Amino acid sequence: MGLPGSAIRIGALYALSGAAAAYGASARRGLELAAEEINAAGGLLGQPVELFIEDEKNPIHAVETVRRMARELGIRLFIGIDSSAIAEAVVPLLPELRAVLMITHAASPRITGELFNPYVFRCSINVAQNARAGALLVAPLPYTTWTTLGPDYSFGYFSWAYFSRFLRELKPETELLPEGIFHPPGAEDLTPWIQRAMRSGAEALWISSWGGDLVRLIQQGKAMGLFRRCAVFMELGAALEVLEALGDEMPEGLWVGTRYWFRWPETPENRRFVAAYFQHYGRYPSYNAQNAYLGLRLLAMAIRRAGTLEPEALIPYLEGIGYQAPMGWIVLRREDHQVVADVVWGETKAHPDYPFRILDPIWTFRGEAITPPPEVGIF
Amino acid sequence: MERRGMEQLAIILIDGLVYASWLFLISAGLTLIYGVLRILNLAHGSLYAMGAYAAASAVLFYFDRGLWPPGSYVALLGAALIIGIVAGPLIERGLLRWIYGRDPVYQLLATYALFLILEDGMKLVWGVNPYYAYKPYGLLGTVQLAGIPYPGYSLLLIGVALLASGGLYLFLHRTRVGRLVVAIIHDPEISVALGANVPRLFLLTFTLGAILAALGGAFTAPMISVVPGLSVEVIVLAFAVVVIGGLGSLEGSAIGALLVGVVRSLMVHRIPELELFAIYLVMALVLLFRPQGLFAIEEVRRV
């Protein structure tokens, strides 16, 4: 490392196969665009950036891959991870490997909570922030009886626990049905769970399903009249991976949220990023693409400022820093290394210029307003 | 209250029937093949997955051409037939005929190897990104059953399963070739002695089983995102249904599928925590009282 003529190696882990592969593919595009731009501008410390992108597959495979990349390639900088279960398995390794990890998707609160260590950063919105934005959105609306429809694993339960807690705080008269409704992730036929949600007596539904599950849920829900029966709020419904998969099958006028929306904010940074991405790939960046792009940009900035690749020397240049990202002004909070950034919600609408539904109108929630206090002590 | 109770019962039964139809489609071929060839085909799920991929490709191709939408159901059917008719004989002639009558461990290893090869073969052909071919799903809209809204496509799935089971029944009991197949299921040795052309019947049966698996995959494709790894879940569920019904018995598979479908649906609506466990609960209870399954074919005692 650091020899003239060598490259700065960065290890990346994303879901490149399986049900979440569309997310991994967009992250890869964002990552490669950032690397290309950095290298075109002369690289870092006089060296080009070289990416080693691997399929994260499952926790055991991911842990082995990270160890192997650290041992065989001398990699001390990692980025990525779509699945929370995988991130939770990798994060505890970092102090031992003396490697920095920039998480760009996995949203589990445990990563910046009980599992936190100084080597991990997260430049993407987490479960609590998503839920808080959702609660702020729905509190003024006339719905009082709520339940959830989500995947039957930790993410679905965390999402509902945070959302219902925040909503109760904002609106004490809220009535939460005793049981949330959780479907097995990956189930072909979601109609029994949709049926239960429709007959639960809830006026409104908080939906945390995502990816392929959400695509099926919307398709099957539409065929059952779910969207006529209750008000529906899908916290990750505006992920471009979902909107593109559904195309004009996506009903109009549905409330959907996302962790970044390419048409917002209208800043030079965002316009430039979206234009460069479109020119490269002929499509628009999803939140996962933006997050991966942002993650690598943050690591690059820290390397430039620190003038070294030593992980411990980089940490102070990531901790507490602010950055003008495509998604707006962000801060990597000092205490738990969680990004403080804005969340976007909107109503789906057809638009002649896009082969998928866009958001119109959109509602944005400031990072400071949706980020609960840190859940870890100061190290 | 009374009315709500009735409605709930109707929902449980219909949901159960939809799931049972799917279970029957994935397990009928497996049990038929076992009954005749006496081989437990671990690559059965791969035939299902290939059916799903071929159907998704066919549907996407069909709609890209801007053709008449309802014709896409024919594309689904066509994709299943092509996979079954091409892959069935290839597997039977290329692999299975060498291992008939061998130690079951060899047979399991051989079909497991085939499963692994097909799994990666599918990644080579179709890649690892999901395929969304949902257009045929939305076309059928919503149907009201006893005042309860259902996706029309769920009813189509029930129809496909009923047609498949009816067709199988007529074939096995009303045609000469079908009767020969039944004869082999019950007594291979006597059938050979009576002049049945066993190699031809084995080829025919395996192809038929492969078509059934591909049909299950093809008609599931519009409901799901078609991704690598579909085969694994399917072989586990299909095997459980076949064990419940009794290895080699089509009637058993149908009853087993219904039983599992209704019990699972009961759990989804009444005890959601136990939903994942439903199929194993049914299996455990059945095996406790009938270790050979509900309708096991009688083994001829060899002296």
What does this structure look like?
The complex is a heterodimer of chains A (379) and B (303). Chain A is of the alpha/beta class and 379 residues long. Chain A has two domains: 8-125 and 265-340, Response regulator (Rossmann fold); 128-258 and 343-370, Response regulator (Rossmann fold, 3-Layer(aba) Sandwich), CATH 3.40.50.2300. Chain A has 14 helices and 16 strands. Chain A has helices at 21-40, 59-73, 84-90, 94-97, 127-138, 154-170, 191-198, 211-224, 226-229, 240-246, 268-281, 287-306, 311-318, 367-370, and strands at 8-14, 49-55, 77-80, 100-103, 120-122, 145-151, 175-176, 181-183, 204-207, 231-234, 255-258, 322-325, 328-332, 339-340, 343-349, 358-365. In chain A, strands 6, 7, 8, 9, 10, 11, 15 and 16 form an eight-stranded mixed β-sheet that branches. A five-stranded parallel β-sheet of chain A has the order 2-1-3-4-5, with helices on both faces. A three-stranded antiparallel β-sheet of chain A has the order 12-13-14. In chain A, helix 8 (211-224) packs across helix 10. The mean pLDDT of chain A is 94. In chain B, helix 3 (72-94) packs antiparallel against helix 9 (198-220). Chain B has helices at 2-37, 44-64, 72-94, 104-126, 135-139, 152-174, 176-186, 188-193, 198-220, 230-245, 250-270, 278-289; strands at residues 131-132, 142-145, 148-151, 225-226. The longest helix of chain B has 36 residues, at 2-37. In chain B, a hairpin with a 2-residue loop joins strand 2 (142-145) and strand 3 (148-151). Chain B is mainly alpha-helical. Chain B has one domain. A two-stranded antiparallel sheet of chain B has the order 1-4.
